[in-house]
Amino acid sequence: MSKKGQTNHWKGEISMKKILILNGGPRMHNNTAKLLAAAGEGAVSAGASTETIDLYKLNFTDCRSCLACKNKRMAVPWKCYWRDGLTETLQKVYEADAIIIGSPIFFGEPTGVVRSFMVRSTFPALSYDDYQSTFPGKIDVAVILTMNADQNYYDKHYKSHMEEYFQPFHYLNGKTEILTSFDTLQVPDYSRYRMASWDEAKKKAHHAEQFPKDLQAAFELGRRLASRQ
Questions:
Q1: What are phi and psi of 180, to 5 degrees?
Q2: Beta-carbon contacts of residue 80 (< 8 Å; ≥ 6 apart)
Q3: In angstroms, how far apart are the furthest CA atoms of the chain?
Q4: Lowest mean pLDDT among 4-8, 109-113, 116-120
């Protein structure tokens, strides 16, 4: 059997890359979801297979600190042993060549489900013997972030924090990169909400000009992940 994404010399074939797409936002059809869909289209265009999972539809918790993943009697030290609604998705993570996870920014942070997923998928691979990874494979990770903040605010207040925030994905032994979408359109009609601080006309004009560019950037991200050796 060939390894993921590598040539099967016995058959002379190349196995199809698997890319798992995870929506960490509560809306299934808004900015984050649209960018993830574009990334998936880019991956498929490069010959990869994709699957999309909405994390908000799963019933799971953050790490329970059971430390089963650190127990020497356990056969697979890099797997989370706590079984709940995330278990099946984690198995798909372990089998993927890359994952693309998207999240809006709430109060300067990704959503709670994204944080919980990140810990559950990476903490088991962290060895407390030498602080190296016990995971035997390599999974590249792309993070797509959407936010009301503009790029200047992000660069000043969020950028370095987000780069540090997603460091745990390095325990999956692949590359981690972040794609950002700024000043997003929250709702189609701002007059229905207590959002007077936002200029609806300005928001819509920015969205009409910028969001197609963001979708293209997401498409190229997916294509690049699927093409990476």
A1: -120, 145
A2: 63, 69, 86, 87, 90, 120, 121, 123, 124
A3: 64
A4: 4-8
Query: What is the C-alpha separation between 54 and 57, in angstroms, rounded?
Result: 6
Half-sphere exposure of residue 193: CA atoms within 13 angstroms, side-chain side = 10
Nearest one of 21, 19, 16, 20 to 2, comparing CA atoms: 16
Among 12-21, 51-60, 96-105, the minimum mean pLDDT is found in 12-21
- In the numeric block, the tokens 């995870």 are attached to 22
pTM: 0.91
pLDDT digits (tens, 9 = 90+) for 25-56: 999 899 999 999 999 999 999 999 999 999 99
pLDDT(13) > 70: no
- The predicted structure's pLDDT at residue 229: 79
Instruction: Provide CB contacts within 8 A for 117, sequence distance 6+.
Output: 22, 24, 55, 60, 86, 89, 101
- Residues in the chain, overall count: 229
Residues 6+ apart with CB under 8 A from 168: 118, 119, 122, 123, 126
Sequence-ordered strand ranges (E) for 62-186: 98-104, 139-146, 173-181
Q: Are 218 and 40 in contact (CB under 8 A)?
A: no
